[in-house]
Structure to design on (236 residues):
């Protein structure tokens, strides 16, 4: 299993000292930003955008770590491929994705399973395997099944945790729970819906989205997108 060009992004981090060839010789600089295909590298007063394939770590320690991360990615990809084949998903493809909030994704129309590259290199191996099986269960159950009983039965049979939260990274869950803790049913809130600022009252606090009534319309709004206007009752 070979790594795709975009998978090389995971081999670098902001702040890494790197070197790369230019027409005027090799330059050394510091990674400022990791864009999908290229890194932004600062060399003194100049900024370069360099494709990952052309970048090398400037220190031996980083180069070693780079090798370990690349090996880990290859292992995870090979394991995903083997698990997919064992479950009859020969016609499906696997690849790594850039998402940090979503650990994995099953795209039925494209017959594609995507795994977060960050999760693959930084997650505990058991968690990463669990995410792969979670997505395989989606592939087998079909998109209509959602996280319902049919999907759960397949997830259990495969040995995956039959819980929907497996898509969400810990960081994303903490952000969502912190935002949710700031509201309660009955609060008056402001949010942007279809490009307009709207005011409504929270009717129900679902785990991920608040059910908000605004006039005759009900909206389901993620907590980080709500702004408090008036509390349902004074807080002590
Ligand atoms: Zn799922």
């Amino acid at each position: 299993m070979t790594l795709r060009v975009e998978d090389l992004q995971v081999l670098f981090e902001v702040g890494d000292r790197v070197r790369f060839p230019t027409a005027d010789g090799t330059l050394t600089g510091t990674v400022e930003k990791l864009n999908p295909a290229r890194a932004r590298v600062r060399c003194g007063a100049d900024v370069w955008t360099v494709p990952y394939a052309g970048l090398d770590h400037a220190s031996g320690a980083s180069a070693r770590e780079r090798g370990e991360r690349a090996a880990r990615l290859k292992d995870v990809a090979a394991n995903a491929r083997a698990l997919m084949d064992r479950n009859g998903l020969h016609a499906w493809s696997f690849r790594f994705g850039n998402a940090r909030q979503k650990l994995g994704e099953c795209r039925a129309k494209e017959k594609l399973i995507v795994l977060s590259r960050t999760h693959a290199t930084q997650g505990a191996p058991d968690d990463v395997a669990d995410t792969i099986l979670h997505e395989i269960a989606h592939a087998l159950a079909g998109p209509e099944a959602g996280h319902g009983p049919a999907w759960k039965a397949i997830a259990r049979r495969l040995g995956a945790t039959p819980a929907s939260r497996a898509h969400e990274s810990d960081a994303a869950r903490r952000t969502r729970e912190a935002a949710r803790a700031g509201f309660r049913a009955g609060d008056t809130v402001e949010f942007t819906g279809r490009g307009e600022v709207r005011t409504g009252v929270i009717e129900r606090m679902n785990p991920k989205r608040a059910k908000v009534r605004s006039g005759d319309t009900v909206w389901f709004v993620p907590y980080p997108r709500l702004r408090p206007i008036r509390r349902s009752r004074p807080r002590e």
User: Anything to note?
Assistant: The pocket of zinc ion is lined by residues 134, 138, 147, 164, 167 (CB under 6 Å). The mean pLDDT is 87. Residues 60-86 form the longest helix (27 residues).
